[in-house]
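Researcher: I'd like a structural prediction for the single chain below. Treat it as a standalone chain; there are no partners to consider.
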Amino acid sequence: MTNAGEGAPARAAASADTRMVQAILAQVARRVVGQDYMVERLLIGLLTGGHVLLEGVPGLAKTLTVKTLAETIDTSFQRIQFTPDLLPADVLGTQIFDQQTGEFRAKKGPIFANIILADEINRAPAKVQAALLEAMQEKQVTIGSTTYVLDEP
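Model: Treating it as a single chain, here is the predicted structure.
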């Protein structure tokens, strides 16, 4: 026989998680109206550690929604506008020479934010797209000879 109370802690945790998700949805809905489906899908991607592809005509509040979600969960957000003249270092970061110490130090790029909005990826050169996709897949970036692990949101 099993004890009827054995599942109570799991149910309580699930209930707390559900309340947290509902609170996030409600907070985002205060600023973004009519995009509940998109917000739910963004949260699913966030909670499962995946990526989300948002497609749509201009004016659907894609940027506002992602930025609001990042603010709601108190995490860092960066929007990267991809253009034909963008370089991989513009996304990943680069090494900067520090004259005081005589050494190079890493200047991390926008890819190090917890939530990234990569806008108009199709306009970027192939090398920039490859750098972004590698960071998404490997969850790490190499600047110079040092590899940096990307933080989880």
